[in-house]
């Protein structure tokens, strides 16, 4: 197609192909979204059109939002083609609001996006100015006056309401603002009044950010991009100290720390460090950050250099001063926690696991493995069964999965084994305790394995075994015996 031909994306709506988006050349020739493709080509025979890929557009918009994280941690999507940034307290890092807007525009244009940008006191006001105002750069001196001059379409209400307003002779936001809200609400609905108040700044609303806002953060911007990792680690150490002070002032500790490295070409690399308990010790956190950087499978690539670095703490918990334990228990717990944190930073959180108990009577399910960093997050942990003082343990240390079949001879059918054979070795039972009858969890799917009678037995040579009979005489035709574990 000719390079100067108008271009549009189309989608099927109600059985007809309609324009979804139009380029600048198409807008100059009077084409607007919502027009049918047939009418558009009747007006502009040279129109080039192709089906819209809304999924790819959504992914591209999200990628742009991720790229804007360097300007503010509060970035929200405004589908189908907008972004909202809360830059409160961020403009001074870039030399003022106008300089910040210029950097945002230049950064997004690197992705091939056509950008319109505006600054206002509320998200709805900024959206209206960016989409419908002739002048968008910089915040207008009289924001309300600029907003009042915009057409009613800037309110973002549905097309039916816009058409009804135009038929009633209400063409600008000022036309609506000069009329009583009760009359407008009774004729056009409360949604219009709410949009009018939000656009004019009388009612503010929270934006839903792409990721939760961090409780604490610290960042640095560099006049010249940093190329060496040593310099990045030095800056990161300073940010760790700053974040630790913020946490101490709040009486809290962090569970997740995210370092964001912003490259001068627009790429962003994030490295997260998780801990098993809340910490705010700067020395320990520095060691964890260095462990994580050393363990990266894809090392940091400086490219043309990093021009910014941010350390954020998205997850915090209350943390009080630790009382010194003269018995050494607190020090031992801290040492174990530090070891788990370092192992997780080095090998990955899912590769360092611990056993935790389940609240169940089924011995096959009474323990499960979870990442060691998640143990402290279990809201209502079950407790391990405690052995009676002076009594042997109820469960063996070594378990077989699956249980090993054995041949058993018993004095009576439902009694304990008197002799059993395992791997061609015959064991004569000297002592036996049981049965401990354990029924399956009938409420769980796949629990039709039958009742088990468990026995703790000791042979004539002093070896102890944990055996069970699956099924009861009278319930099953031929109950079978299995060895489930060995006592130490």
Outline the fold blueprint.
Blueprint: E1 7-13, E2 16-22, H1 24-28, H2 37-43, E3 48-51, H3 54-67, E4 75-78, E5 82-85, H4 97-109, H5 123-132, H6 143-148, H7 159-167, H8 173-177, H9 181-188, H10 190-199, E6 216-226, H11 229-250, E7 252-263, E8 268-279, H12 282-294, E9 306-318, H13 329-347, E10 353-357, E11 367-371, E12 398-410, E13 417-422, E14 425-438, E15 452-459, E16 464-470, E17 480-486
Parallel strand pairs: 1-3
Antiparallel strand pairs: 1-2, 4-5, 6-9, 7-8, 7-9, 10-11, 12-13, 12-17, 13-14, 14-15, 15-16, 16-17
Helix pairs in contact: 9-10, 11-12, 12-13
Care to count the β-strands? 17
Quote the beta fraction. Answer: 25-35%
Global geometry: elongated
SS field, number of helical segments: 13
The major beta sheet can be summarized as: 6 strands, antiparallel, barrel
Q: Could you say how many structural domains there are in total? A: 4
Low-confidence stretches: none
Q: What portion of residues is helical?
A: 25-40%
Sheet with most strands: strand arrangement: 12-13-14-15-16-17
What is the CA-atom radius of gyration, in angstroms? 34 Å
For the terminal residues, how far apart are their CA atoms?
A: 81 Å
Q: How would you spell out the order of helices and strands?
A: EEHHEHEEHHHHHHHEHEEHEHEEEEEEEE
